[in-house]
Amino acid sequence: MQQPPAPQFLGLTPILFFVAVVLCAGLITDDITAMPVLVALFLAAGYALILNPKGERLSLNDKIGRFCEGAGNKNIILLVIIFLLAGAFYSLTIDIGARDATVNMALSVIPTPMILPGLFLICCFISFSMGTSTGTITALAPIGLGLSEGLGVSPALLAGVVVGGAMFGDNLSFVSDTTIAATRSQGVKLTDKFKANLLITLPASIITFILLMFVPVADTSTLQQGDYDVVRMLPYMLIIICALIGLNVVLVLAIGIGSAAIIGLLVGSFAPMAMWQSIQTGIGWMQNLSLIAVTIGGIVALMHAYGGIAWLINTLTRRVQSRQGAEYSIAALVSLLDLSTANNTISIVAAGPIAKDLNEQYGVDPRRTASILDVFSCAFQGLVPYGAQILTIAAVGGLSPLSVSMYCWYPMLLFVFGVVAIAFNIPRFVTVNADTDV
Fold first, then answer.
1. Could you tell me what percent of the chain has a pLDDT over 90?
2. Residue 276 and residue 267: Cα distance in Å, rounded?
3. Which segment of the chain is annotated as a signal peptide (predicted)?
């Protein structure tokens, strides 16, 4: 059996190198978006290939092999497939007029002051039903971003609204992979973790809703509103319905693509060959994002091999002396793991066993621990500009991921109320029930 790598800080530096490259380029050019994300990641990957595990030297071939194993991880490849299918769906729905029809309907039906809060609530509902933030963003990004011009609101702000609503369900849903990972790792019921999370997510979501009501938007009554054809909106309706009944996200996207293609042919939006060209165009939009996901997967694999993740875990748990200190350490651990891996499920899986040991040693209720793991991992996942959620919507809207992060108010508030919950011991559980209904 292969021995785990010895912990060392040097193994964590590839992700720090990436952040430093982006920040330095931004300081030099006065533009934080100046450095392309993929180029910065390639530089970080090159730097990672120079490093070695503590007390061991790996050949370049071995390092490249480990990088490729991480890049080719089944979850990464699935993410790439979702990205490419999403691109095809976006392109087709734009070409058949689905986006414009949805925008026109929204402008004519929803009261102007409630459009942004309404969009946030819709995203919360869909993500809670689907249990996936990426799937929610895939479904609603074109709709949300399509409202930008008509409302006179920054597309980055609208992207932040969609991401925030998507992270609501990712954190709270019973079928979310983060919920399942957190409850399984601590041996608690889904309902207990839900109750603990609800006391944190509700104030965060309510405040987000109120803040969005005060964002100034254009008076849509003075805008020239176009006609809308409900038929052209059917692909959006179909994927939302399919997501709500729990279909796999790949199947949901396939149904969306098929319905958009058929409708486009029936209403004369394009000829058959033009339809295939539209699909290819959308796939092309997502090629850069797919390479980013693959590269991040490879870098994370090298960080594991070099002992960087192990060092991070050991450092954060070294000086714990009380129950509250243990809870803060668990929160910091899962947060930094998410910043390092850009994957909240992976960060929960990695932090779970350490958190369980801290439960036993310092008397932390495992139901609180499950909640802490999920809350903080989702908060940071909704903020990191190199995470799948923000990268996806940034690619759809042609935006800088950093500009989107600035408007992700719900994840910011989720972090704040997570800290408050630890500080004031919210919620207080009377007894510990270690059964699980997962």
1. 33
2. 16
3. none
